[in-house]
From TrEMBL:
One Pfam match: DUF1707
Residue ranges annotated for the DUF1707 domain, each copy included: 26-77
InterPro entries: DUF1707_SHOCT-like
Domain of life: Bacteria
Name listed for the protein in its UniProt record: DUF1707 domain-containing protein
Length: 207
């Protein structure tokens, strides 16, 4: 067995790092509450919640202190991929299909990502990084992995990684110590793309 596959299997089988707080125990922000309020407003507007239920959940959202408490208020209203706050704890896998991960989610210190003939889209723009350095452990065969990162994040390739095709379309961070996304593992017969969102377009007469 090659070292690439050994590293990939180890990343998948490794126990979750429990040295830090659990994602659901992280403190909620005002922006997190606003996301939940929007989901609750939509639910009462189309009849999924009664006005009384809406009022009760809005009050609970105001009282909520953690992400886990907020997430429980919408779990029965939206499918997992549309939740305003997502607690992802599983690796990312795309076997001849497309797998998306994004929204408001907590990013662990290591993310095993597998793409065999498929596409993986990882959106980090609204994500919470639990650590300053996040390792994306790749196992890519004839697949594509696209990372959408906010400005100010540095995307690098680990020295031992075997990533044949990597297109880094991010903008250099201005900070001397930016958050780091490190690509490890292997990508054969496929590609990895990292890019930032497009900057807003300037109006024709804007100065």
């Amino acid at each position: 067995m090659s070292s690439d596959f050994r590293d990939w299997i180890a990343a998948w089988l490794a126990p979750r790092d429990t040295s830090g707080p659990r994602p659901e125990d992280l403190r909620a922000s005002t922006a997190d509450r606003e996301r939940v309020f929007t989901a609750l407003t939509d639910a009462v507007a189309d009849g999924r919640l009664t006005p009384a239920e809406h009022e009760e959940r809005v009050e609970a959202a105001y009282r909520a202190q953690t992400l886990g408490q907020l997430a429980q208020l919408t779990v029965d209203l939206l499918p997992p991929e549309n939740q305003p706050i997502v607690m992802h704890e599983r690796p990312v896998m795309a076997l001849f299909r497309t797998e998306n991960r994004g929204g408001r989610w907590v990013v662990p210190a290591k993310i095993p990502v597998t793409s065999f003939g498929g596409k993986v889209n990882i959106d980090l723009r609204d994500a919470l990084l639990q650590t300053h350095r996040v390792v994306v452990q790749l196992a890519v065969m004839a697949g594509t992995v696209t990372l959408l990162v906010p400005d100010g994040v540095l995307v690098t390739v680990a020295p031992q990684a075997r990533v044949r095709t990597f297109k880094n379309q991010t903008r250099p961070p201005e900070s001397a110590s930016p958050p780091i996304i490190e690509l490890a593992g292997f990508a054969y017969g496929g590609k990895v793309i990292a890019r930032c969102p497009n900057p807003p377009k300037r109006g024709l007469f804007r100065r």
